[in-house]
Amino acid sequence: MELKKIELNNRSIFVIGNVSLLDNHKTGLFCSRKCPADKIMEAHDQFKIWARDKRTVISGFHSPVEKECLRVFLKSAGNIILCPARGILNMRIRSEWKPLMEAGRLLIISPFDDSIRRASQKIAQKRNEFIKSVSDEIVVVYASAGSLLS
Questions:
Q1: Per-residue pLDDT averaged across 118-139, rounded?
Q2: Quick check: 49 and 43 in contact, CB under 8 A?
Q3: Cβ(43)–Cβ(71) under 8 Å?
Q4: Confidence label for 116 from pLDDT (cuts 50, 70 and 90)
Q5: 99: part of which helix (H) or strand (E)?
Q6: CB–CB of 108/88 below 8 Å?
Q7: What is the mean pLDDT of residues 108-119?
Q8: If you ran DSSP here, which 8-state letter would residue 23 be given?
Q9: Is the pLDDT score of 149 beyond 70?
Q10: Which range in 2-6, 74-78, 104-108 is most confidently predicted, on average pLDDT?
């Protein structure tokens, strides 16, 4: 798959994968790194339902709970829009992502050019704002006090 530059909401973004996933109803997923066990269990059950329903979820998939959503979707029929907090020009496509990419169920998207090579708190906040701007609905599993999500 090749990197493309497209326009979305009057903004240039970079994509790798199935761009038509942007036409789906998109659920923006957020969760703080530290999350109570009961919220994790609730979220895991919800992810299974979303995957069964072929939901399209957009997230950075950075926190443990977000990574769990990605893990569930990798084994199911759900669609993933992965939005890392950096440019994606030289991003390595993980072997476990390739079947989804080939099936048209994965899109990697970034509002950052290749000059942004490392995530920072400021870049992560900008990424989160971008995800919110392109999502049709937002789900915050848990936001710890003082986090970027609170």
A1: 92
A2: no
A3: no
A4: confident
A5: helix 98-103
A6: yes
A7: 88
A8: G
A9: no
A10: 104-108
Which has the closest alpha carbon to 15: 106, 137, 134, 123?
A: 106
What pTM, to 2 d.p., does this model score?
A: 0.92
List, in order of start, the domains of the chain with CATH numbers: 4-140 (3.40.50.450)
3-state helix, strand, coil in the chain (%, to 5): 35, 25, 45
Q: Is residue 38 within a helix (H) or strand (E), and if so which, with residue range?
A: helix 37-52
Residue with tokens 């989804």: 100
Report DSSP state, residue 135: -
Residues 90, 115 contacting (CB under 8 angstroms): no
The count of C-alpha atoms lying within 13 angstroms of the C-alpha of 118, restricted to the half-sphere facing its C-beta, is 1
**Tokens in use for 49?**
């339902």
